[in-house]
Amino acid sequence: MKLSGLGVWNLYFLVKFALYYYGVIDFSFLSNAALAALLVIQFKNARVEKVKHIIALIIAVILLYKDSWLPPINRLIKQAGNVQDFSFDYFIELVGRVVNVDMLLGLFIIVVLFWYSSQWIRFTTVTIIGLAFIGWQGQSNSLDINESPTVVNNSSIATQSKAPVVTTQYQSPDQKLSDFYQQQSLLTSHFPKEYNGELFDVIILNICSMAVADLNFLGISVTDMYKDFDVVFPDFNSATSYSGPAAIRLLRASCGQTNQASLFKDAPEQCYLFKNLEKLGYQNNVVMNHDGHFDEFKGLINRYGGLDSKPFNIDSMPIAQYGFDNSPIYSDGAVLNGWLDQQAKDCKPCAMYYNTTSLHDGNQLANRARMNSQQSYPLRHANLFSDINGFIKNLEKRGRNVMLMVVPEHGAALKGDKVQFAGLREIPSPAIVSVPVAIKFIGPDVQNYSQIVIDDSISYFSLSELVSKTLKTNVFGGKNSIANLLDNLPKAPKVAENADTIMMYVNQRPYIQLDGGDWSEYPQGD
Ligand SMILES: [Zn+2]
User: Fold this and answer.
1) How far is the CA of 153 from the centre of ligand 1 (A)?
2) Which domain, by its residues, includes 492?
């Protein structure tokens, strides 16, 4: 046994250094250094040497996969069931996004350069220096994340000196997260026992795939898009990047934010927004512009969102798009106005939940040539908002009081970033979970105010608080101003989760934790 150079294995490490530098992958220092150490040991026996290389190759593939931001294998297998539903064209569109031509060219250049210069450059030395540099950098990063002082009142010191003394305590990200959930668990909206003011309908339009980042990417201004709305929240935390959990979180808005696992367990009765309204005489209506089969969406909002009424029948409505699995997506305008004509008269008042997938990745416009998602998104977005504005006009004509809320589920990840290609929402990154929410008060006695923009980061609980405050203060009877409703709305730190993936801000920077592992900074920039 003796030590030798890394030979062609240097290429593996050099490519990984380059990917790590550009933030395309993470780099677990210890495992990679251990692999390099194994490779520099040279065995005398040729067969043992061969086995070493085979084992190293397997480890290298696993390590590269682990260092990438791709979802863990077990989750990928679970997702494979969904991939079977994808249409072939959509599958090809996705492959085109993963296989990046620039990346292939870069790889080709690195290989040729290595081949050319390996005669006179000792690449093993370069690799060792690179590893040492990453190891050193990792040390300084881990110090960085732990250096987040939390100001606490130390009561024992306070009594001695008879004045409150503020000390700093170092809090780990895990402690921060558990503190956050602890604080959130104390929040519950209190609805009035009965309602004596002017009756008003509550209508929530839950839109799949529309984040502030998507609108910025297309050059659409949030305040222009919501120009007819009274209140705009441009920094709403959707707290997740998938539809089912987003809808459950919205439907449980009357309690504080919980972790992902709790969404799929029963919650206390008072957490369900629509159940709270039902107790006041509201009749719940579920309306969707799709059949709700994907990811068992329909079952989820029923079982975990407390919405047990039968969805409004849309079978005879015009089809506007076909989903990524070729299932029909019905015209938003036709479905919303159809509901208004057929069902909205019967409930006094109505609490209506609407879910639309018109902006989902991979949709195709009906009767149009195939377009990729980025090409068709602006068209689909314009159609959706023209339908919503038409619906508002009809609500105004009807003359009943309505509190209308537009709440996107999560973003479309139209632009993508270093970690996740466009359309991938596995990690709930800030760009995907920061969505624009707006509220409009419609009614004969509601005065027209200028648009109020609240820049604070808020989340679902604030929406429940707003409904409860509206019930308490009779805004529709002209007894309270909309601006008064917005006083003391609970702000929400941006914590977001998917199954086994958590994003949280530490020192004003987003960090993520995958599968309960270490926290690492989410690479920013393109
Ligand atoms: Zn969605």
Assistant:
1) 42
2) 199-521
